[in-house]
């Protein structure tokens, strides 16, 4: 029997009621020390993402903490870019996150989340975001109270849809039990090196519930690009077969999963952002796909 051929699907997928691109661009490194005040450079990155077909833009209030621009810095930069080029906003689905405060570290109390959302909207210079996500679980706030805060955000019109980041399937279940609407997304760390969501129920739950899977660090923190890990070597070889690099193959590897995982590309280079679309060129047989997983695990699959 011929081996199944797997290809990334370039068609939009749904985030609740919103169509989104199969690849997203993330801003966790936007507020870097080199040129963090260069709004022209930020606009160039946004334009590169849009040219690559990316419509989902992922940020968070914590992005910028530890950098000269500080907490909220990435949102400020995005807000300045949108103020300079308001025409870009209509082409973007903006997702942001809250619930982490340096030194606290987590707070999902209703009062905190309400203030955090308003602060994010002010930094972004917008009245509404398409997706608001709890960034990490606050163990000291009952999911009933978190749900009440999130429902109020949607009722206010400030947020279109709600998702979670770094939540376990059990934590998703607990929060969902108190919400009057479905969670539309989950954002785990996932790559060929961080493959636990394949096994811990994260992807299965997302498929069962129809949640979008927004994967952060899809290149394994860079270890899958030019690294000496056996999985990186397989990805580089697979990319070379299709005339693209290991990064494109790494994105493609996760995108062919039936959960239609959305990798969040973190590059701040317009050329590298544009190159994300090379992922659509790479095809896989199921044998090739599982070979990467086996290499990542460092053992033969059972």
From TrEMBL:
Ranges where the NADP-dependent oxidoreductase domain occurs: 23-289
SUPFAM superfamilies: NAD(P)-linked oxidoreductase (SSF51430)
Organism for this UniProt entry: Novosphingobium ovatum
InterPro entries recorded: AKR, AKR_Detox_Biosynth, NAD(P)_OxRdtase_dom_sf, NADP_OxRdtase_dom
Entry protein name: Aldo/keto reductase
């Amino acid at each position: 029997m011929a081996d199944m051929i797997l290809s990334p699907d370039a068609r939009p997928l749904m985030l609740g009621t919103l169509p989104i691109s199969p690849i997203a661009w993330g801003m966790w490194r936007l507020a870097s020390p080199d040129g963090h005040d260069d709004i022209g450079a930020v606009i160039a990155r946004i334009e590169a993402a849009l040219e690559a077909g990316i419509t989902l833009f992922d940020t968070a209030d914590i992005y910028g903490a530890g950098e000269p621009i500080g907490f909220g810095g990435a949102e400020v930069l995005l807000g300045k870019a949108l103020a300079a080029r308001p025409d870009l906003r209509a082409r973007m689905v903006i997702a942001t996150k809250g619930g982490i405060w340096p030194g606290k570290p987590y707070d999902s109390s209703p009062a905190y989340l309400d203030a955090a959302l308003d602060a994010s909207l002010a930094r972004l210079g917008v009245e509404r975001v398409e997706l608001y996500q709890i960034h990490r679980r606050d163990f000291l706030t009952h999911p009933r109270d978190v749900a009440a805060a999130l429902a109020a955000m949607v009722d206010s019109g400030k947020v279109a849809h709600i998702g979670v980041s770094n939540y376990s399937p059990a934590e998703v279940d607990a929060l969902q039990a108190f919400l009057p609407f479905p969670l539309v997304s989950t954002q785990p760390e996932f790559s060929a090196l961080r493959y636990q969501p394949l096994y811990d129920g994260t992807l299965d739950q997302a498929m069962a519930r129809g949640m979008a899977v927004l994967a952060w660090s899809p290149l394994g923190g860079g270890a899958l690009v030019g690294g000496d890990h056996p999985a990186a070597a397989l990805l580089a070889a697979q990319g070379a077969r299709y005339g693209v690099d290991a990064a494109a193959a790494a994105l493609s590897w996760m995108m062919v999963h039936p959960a239609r995982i959305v990798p969040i590309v973190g590059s701040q280079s317009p050329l590298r952002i544009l190159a994300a679309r090379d992922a659509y060129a790479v095809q896989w047989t199921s044998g090739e796909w599982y070979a990467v997983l086996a290499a990542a695990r460092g053992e033969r699959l059972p």
